[in-house]
Amino acid sequence: MAVGLTLIFGVMRVVNFAHGDMMVWGMYLAFVLATRAGLDPYLAFPVCAVALFALGVVVQRGLVDPIIEAPHEMQILLMLGVALVLENTALLIFGPEPARVRSPLARLAWEVGPLYVDVARLVTFAVAVVLTLALSLFLYRTDLGRLIRASADNHYGALVIGADVRRIYATAFGIGAACVGAAGALVSPILPFQPPTGLSLSVTSFNIVIIGGMGSLVGAFIGGLLVSVAESLGAVFLRPSLKELFSFSLLIVILLFRPAGLFGKRTP
Amino acid sequence: MLRLEGVEAGYGDVVAVRSVSLEVRAGEIVALIGSNGAGKTTTLRAIAGLLPLRRGSVELEGRRLNGLGSAAVVRAGVAHVPEGRQLFPTMTVGENLELGARTAEGRAYRPQTLARVFDLFPRLAERRAQLAGTLSGGEQQMVAIGRALMARPRLLMLDEPSLGLAPVVVGSIFANLAAINRDGLTILLVEQNVLRALKCSHRAYVLENGTITLSGASATLLADERIKRAYLGR
Ligand SMILES: Nc1ncnc2c1ncn2[C@@H]1O[C@H](COP(=O)(O)OP(=O)(O)OP(=O)(O)O)[C@@H](O)[C@H]1O
Ligand SMILES: [Mg+2]
Predict the structure, then answer these.
(1) Surface of B (37-96) touching A: CB under 8 A
(2) Cβ of residue B192 lying under 6 Å from some atom of ligand 1
(3) Over the range A79-90, which residues count as b (16 or more CB within 10 Å of their CB) and which as e?
(4) Substitution target from A11, A160, A166, A267 for chain B, most B beta carbons within 10 A
(5) Quick check: CB of B13 below 6 Å from ligand 1?
(6) How many other CB atoms are found less than 10 A from the CB of residue A117?
(7) Mean pLDDT along residues A217-237
(8) Among A25, A206, B141, B207, whose Cα sits 20 to 30 Å from the Cα of B173?
(9) Does the C-beta of B146 come closer than 6 Å to ligand 1?
(10) Distance from CA of A162 to the nearest CA of B (A)
């Protein structure tokens, strides 16, 4: 999820507050696919990714594109607006009750020596690793990926070399949204959700991205690990409701020592 | 090869160039000189499709370029080394160069062109894996030129390649431009370093306050009293 956010921010410097809500849409989509079509979320996540890719491209083309040159604040407002629309549409369609997708996998646990390994979380983790690797390969080894990084690095420079910057942005936004869609489907059996969940997901993923360093994929991945470990420890040693205290303390400590985040590059 | 007819362009209320007409013939090096704010950069940006024309036309080999957008202009064969170089600072020298190959021909001949660029600028071969943002100014200028060459253009436009560089480095860059021109590439060169520009070009145009005030063979202009007084400090 944070990987998707990193991509969008890194490329377009658009702060996407609709991120969490897009993820919730991924979750509801998995929910619908599971209840109506009997499709397990662990199989359905590519479908959610594709659907969210389309949503991402539409949002980018229709809404972000016209104001891409506008100052940051405008974009933040726009994305907050998109977030509200997405959240309330979900509320209208699915109602306020928490939902949860059932999957036989989610109840499975393997006993490894003294430990219980939760199969669902293991699968989620594995997919996250594969996705991060695939995305890195794409960004560093393919022409389109390099163009995405180049546009992120220097928008005007990308125009100078004759890149179709609008198409590149739409692709990047779509891929970012696709990551979120996949993530939403994958956590839907683990995490109960309702329309307002989006906001807390957005906040968490910002936390992750800032810890990892803006615009760094590896940073987003490591940041995600750190935040979830911090929150689990917080939930065990304090109270579950205080778990965010741990991750935000972590954020503050890391920013004190590395203002650009763990893997962030200082922008000159 | 390139023909501008009554070009007008600007920003908001500012009209930066008005009724500029000029021509670059195949195989030439043409210099466009003028003082600060004369409209040189604006002219190049208008040709490159980075700034819309308000009036007039830009044609490359009889084909209209204006209104097509920068991607199409690059595809038509015009590569641009912009003011301030505009590299991709957090990407390597190699990646910066390869990104320049945005045309069909550029992609097809990528390895050969890259070899030629390294041949012209051996420094870049050494620094291939270095991030472009960490290079010296002269090296960055070499990357900007190399990146434009990677498109295998028919016309190369350069905006003040000598800006901020030591005289030795400027000398070697101009020597390389001459070599590139001998390879058969047509060049439109914007410069404030008027002496250098006139010495290395075949013809030149003088731009003042957004209009062409003087033009002719570079050797003639070099001896012209007005040029001597205004630009050469003699
Ligand atoms: N982005 C902009 N917005 C508004 N006015 C601009 C902009 N860029 C340039 N101008 C104005 O247009 C005029 C021509 O500028 P231009 O950059 O083309 O000059 P130049 O000949 O390249 O000068 P220099 O040698 O200093 O680079 C100037 O008066 C400048 O103030
Ligand atoms: Mg200029």
Answers:
(1) 48, 50, 70-75, 80, 82, 86-91, 95
(2) yes
(3) beebbeebbeeb
(4) A160
(5) no
(6) 12
(7) 72
(8) B207
(9) no
(10) 4
CB B145 within 8 A of CB B160: no
**Chain-centre distance of CA B201, in angstroms?**
13
CA-closest residue to ligand 1 atom 30: B37
Q: How confident is the model at residue A243 (pLDDT cuts 50, 70, 90)?
A: low
Taking the C-alpha atoms of B175, B177, B183 and B188 in order, what is their torsion angle to the nearest 10 degrees?
-150
What are the backbone dihedrals phi and psi of residue A189, each rounded to the nearest 5 degrees, phi first? -80, -20
Residue corresponding to tokens 């470990």: A229
Contact indicator for B38, B56 with CB cutoff of 8 Å: no
Q: For residue A89, give Cα distances in angstroms to A92, A94, A97, B37, B117.
A: 5, 8, 14, 53, 55
Adjacent-strand bridge partners of B8: B55
What does pLDDT average to over chain A?
79
Q: Which CATH number is associated with domain B2-231?
A: 3.40.50.300
Which residues of chain B does A265 touch, with a Cβ-Cβ cutoff of 8 Å?
90
How many Å lie between the alpha carbon of A16 and the closest alpha carbon of chain B? 23
pLDDT of residue A259 exceeding 80, the answer is no
Q: Where are the domains of chain A?
A: 2-106+113-195
Q: Helix axis angle, A2-12 relative to A217-237, nearest 10°?
A: 140
Q: First and final CA of chain A: distance in angstroms?
A: 28
pLDDT tens-digit readout, A37-88: 888 888 888 999 899 999 989 988 888 777 777 776 777 788 888 888 888 8
Q: Average pLDDT, whole number, for chain B?
A: 94
Beta strands in B25-142 (DSSP E): 29-33, 55-60, 63-64, 78-81
B75-103: pLDDT as tens digits: 999 999 999 999 999 999 999 999 999 99
pLDDT digits (tens, 9 = 90+) for A187-204: 888 778 888 887 877 777
**Domains of chain B by residue range:** 2-231
Using DSSP, state whether A216 is helix, strand or coil. Answer: coil
Report the gap between the CA of A151 and the closest CA in chain B (Å): 8
Highest mean pLDDT among A119-128, A208-217, A247-256, B142-151: B142-151
**Would you say residue A1 has pLDDT above 50?**
no
The ipTM is: 0.93
Asked if B151 is an interface residue toward chain A (Cβ–Cβ < 8 A), one would say yes
How do residues A140-182 score in pLDDT, each as one tens digit? 899 999 999 898 889 999 999 999 988 888 888 888 888 888 8
Q: How far apart are CA A193 and CA A198, in angstroms?
A: 9
- B186-191/B29-33 β-pairing: parallel
